Amino acid sequence: MDKPSEEQLDVIGGGLAGSEAAWQAAERGLQVRLYEMRPRQMTPAHQSEYLAELVCSNSLGARQLDRALGLLKQELRRLGSMLLECAQETALPAGGALAVGRTAFARAVTARIQAHPRITVVREEIDRLPGGPAIVATGPLTSPALAQEIASWAGQEHLYFYDAMAPIVTAESVDMEVAFRASRYGRGGDDYINCPLDEQAYDRFVQALLSAETAPRREFEDPCFFEACLPVEEIARRGPQSLAYGPLRPVGLTDPRTGRRPYAVVQLRQDDLAGRLYNLVGFQTNLRWPDQRRVFRLIPGLEQAEFVRLGQMHRNTFLHSPALLQPSMQSRARQDLFFAGQLIGSEGYVGSIATGLLAGINAAGLLQGRPLCVLPQTTMLGALAAYLSGGDPRREFQPMKANFGLLPPLEPPVRGKRERYAAYARRALEALETFLQRERSQEAEDGRRD
Ligand SMILES: Cc1cc2nc3c(=O)[nH]c(=O)nc-3n(C[C@H](O)[C@H](O)[C@H](O)COP(=O)(O)OP(=O)(O)OC[C@H]3O[C@@H](n4cnc5c(N)ncnc54)[C@H](O)[C@@H]3O)c2cc1C
């Protein structure tokens, strides 16, 4: 690739994001020091000393292009992801999913990194943000000392230690024949989508919630003690009316179809700038995912809801990225400091690889004086980067997986979910090709000028 330079980059964290970032930067000519604290200091979830260890499932999600993760993986292949090459080499039969031999995958990544002439792996815990150019990719289980350091640098209010996430649905999947737009007491216009429940629907919902199965919690995932983030099923356990006086209270709302206040209301709040995604207000939950789909689809208006993420509650260190990051993964406050992976809320294995790749490419670009790579928002990676870094920096922020709800709508609209997703994928891959061609022509022109 590019010619070697003397520029030095530190990458902190040899997980999925950090390994991909280190590789991309080194391939572009930087000298990279990759700091990984394991095996000297383990996290509560990792089991080995390998780089890029998969801490739980061995699946990198769907292969098909008309699935969000399938599309993101295809984009990453086009962008030269080393981790996806290793995933391909170590793939196992798993139907429509890309599953890998967990140890074989981590070993393959470790071997490629260790053999790279411009990467030095340093097995050390870092507890200070480096003074020079760096990418921080220490993941959801960032060591406490570094987490404290990041919190003092970014501001305590910009680092979260616990995920208490409510499910998110696509706006287009809400049945607006049943739900209605309004804000409580008319304050704030039509900001919320409201799903009204009569007494019967409410009782049925509470019963289903109480009999649903919760996910087992791992030892290190302490329960959340704040009253404000009690799981919705816990609130329901406190008494049959506790939800009707809590997150489902109907006060200040009138159903325009009946002209009356509903018995209870589930409110949905806009979650992305474009208004394509909505979260269920106050619905942080620890229910198993299949049970969430089943129970939450009992809510009138959500019978056909498409969940782009489900609720969960677990330990998760992540930054309030919209206030701190640019779409290049650079911090707003320090040009030579990049962040990537689950730490910035790019949820999941493939999302972490993706933002690691972007941070690695851009750290090299910055140090070598090239324009930084900001992908079109019609690509899945461009849309994810825009979600993480864009919008109102004061907005509520939750980690996000790749999903079609992040992409701008199709013009003209396409009916039918599968056809629509296939059209999104075609448009994304065409936009990526155009972007890459433009980059190549620019490089060729720069080469001629030199
Ligand atoms: C318990 C658990 C289960 C998960 N299961 C899944 C799943 O099944 N599927 C999925 O898609 N996603 C899952 N995730 C979410 C997420 O995709 C993974 O955590 C993913 O590994 C994140 O990649 P990353 O590179 O950001 O962080 P990691 O892969 O965790 O890498 C971070 C690395 O930084 C190192 N490190 C931390 N602090 C320091 C320090 N101070 N100095 C040096 N090194 C440090 C760590 O040892 C680690 O190797 C899970 C997360 C958790 C916590």
Short characterization:
It contains 12 helices and 16 strands. By secondary structure, it is an alpha/beta fold.
Topology:
Elements: E1 8-12, H1 16-27, E2 31-35, E3 59-62, H2 68-78, H3 82-89, E4 91-92, E5 97-100, H4 102-115, E6 119-122, E7 134-136, H5 144-154, E8 159-165, E9 168-170, E10 180-182, E11 192-197, H6 199-211, H7 232-237, E12 264-270, E13 277-280, H8 289-296, E14 307-309, E15 312-319, H9 321-324, E16 337-339, H10 348-367, H11 380-389, H12 417-449
Parallel strand pairs: 1-2, 1-7, 2-6, 7-16
Antiparallel strand pairs: 3-5, 4-5, 8-15, 9-13, 9-14, 10-11, 11-12, 12-13
Helix pairs in contact: 1-10, 2-10, 2-12, 3-4
Bound molecules: flavin-adenine dinucleotide.
Flavin-adenine dinucleotide binds next to helix 1 and helix 10.
Task: Describe the protein.
With 450 residues, the chain is α/β, with parallel strands linked by helices. The chain has 2 domains: 291 residues, FAD/NAD(P)-binding domain; 143 residues, Elongation Factor Tu (Ef-tu), domain 3, CATH 2.40.30. The chain contains 12 helices and 16 strands. The strands form 4 sheets. Strands 10-11-12-13-9-14 form a 6-stranded antiparallel sheet. Strands 6-2-1-7-16 form a 5-stranded parallel sheet. A hairpin with a 4-residue loop joins strand 4 and strand 5. The structure holds flavin-adenine dinucleotide.
What is the spatial order of strands in the main beta sheet? 10-11-12-13-9-14
- SS elements, strand count: 16
Task: Tell me the radius of gyration.
Answer: 23 Å
Roughly what percent helix?
A: 25-40%
CATH architectural type of the largest domain: 3-Layer(bba) Sandwich
The CATH homologous superfamily of the largest domain is named FAD/NAD(P)-binding domain
Q: Name the overall outline.
A: globular
Bound molecule types:
flavin-adenine dinucleotide
By CATH reckoning, the class of the largest domain would read Alpha Beta
Strand content: 15-25%
Structural class: alpha/beta
Overall number of structural domains = 2
Annotated CATH topology of the largest domain: FAD/NAD(P)-binding domain
The H/E string reads EHEEHHEEHEEHEEEEHHEEHEEHEHHH
